[in-house]
Design a protein that fits this description.
The complex is a heterodimer of chains A (213) and B (181). Chain A contains nine helices and nine strands. Chain A has 213 residues and is α/β, with parallel strands linked by helices. In chain A, strands 3-2-4-5-9-8 form a six-stranded mixed sheet, with helices on both faces. In chain A, strand 2, helix 1 and strand 3 form a beta-alpha-beta unit. Helix content of chain B is 38%, strand content 16%. The two termini of chain B are 25 Å apart. The chains are: A alpha/beta (213), B alpha/beta (181).
Amino acid sequence: MGEARKVAVYPCGGVGFVLSSVARYAAYLVTEDLLPGKTEIVDAQRLLNGLPDEVALVEENPTIIIDGCGYQCGSNLFRLLGLKPAARLLIPPIAKLPATFLCDCAGLKKQVRLAPGTQRRVPSESGKNLATEVAVRAKSMAEGLLRPNYRYEPQRVRQGQTAICGYVNNIPEEVGYVMIAEGVDRPNSMPRLDWLEQDGGKGGCGCGVDCLP
Amino acid sequence: MAERVCLFPCGGIKKTESTVARIATYIVNEELLPRQTMILCVPAFLRGVEEDLVMVEDFPTVVIDCHGENCGTNLLFRAGVTPAARIFIPDIAEVTGLGYGSSRRELEAEALALAEAVAGKVAAVCRALLEPDYVSPKQTIKMSASLAQQDVPADPFAYLKLADGIYRPASMPDFSVKGVS
């Protein structure tokens, strides 16, 4: 068990729903703009294909999953692979919260709409706002995971045959998620996210972002 | 006769090539052949979402591989599904001379032109698969698979090249790609 040097960011990887485009855009924002070099995007297809660098990325580093919709396919893929994320962000509850990525001195928060929109190729303005909000939360989460007091135990991808394409009703129960704040979860078997969980699991102010000292 | 075609862009996210595959798929699905195509979402497929299972079992699938890593093809092989056709983007990039650019989030103009060229090929193949005389064999998903392991043989479907960037598994019905360069 040791200190994490990098955080893997895994957006659900879908292509059909607009929310998956928002998840993907958020992951690009974190890994390219907000924490380049300290975060790396997880490519589900390369991972499924067993490419060594992609497998090593999720085995050796803590992962933040960004699930786009209620199907929670990102969490399910990790379940199939026998891996546990360090934390999970679920977009729909975050879309209902006020934006935190803007200063409120001019009342901007009330004007900003966090909604996925309808464009799958590149998210619309409101979709980009939502992606930015998710990205800011992921950045804050990643910074916490990179602190010396967060200890990560490397994992190993499950070997052999795995049952696929079977519908699981309750993904949070299967993964063992405990809710830390709205849209923020962690598997109960993974290290606590102390900077978020000091308030008895409710997560400081509840937003999951401004709780970092 | 197939009423619709399932499009499976490799679904990658790390390489710019995968963005080209995804955008090409949206162009076909939203502009060129709306209501005649569906998009396979791999995470949902592995999750057991009914519509994603049905679309690969009951309809012909066109897989779009963006790179020689062949992630799309290999995923279908793991799941026991044989595609009706495969589009290989590097071939199309080579013959058109168009590049991928460097932006994964939003394609640059040249990469967008490549996505449009790929979409044209995909749509041409789809039209051939939608012809009345094309009979698509029903597929049966293998409900267990090895994941995240390098155990798929090279060229698992023994692809035959039909035109630049267009391939067909040796075991699948032939189709005409006349007029497609």
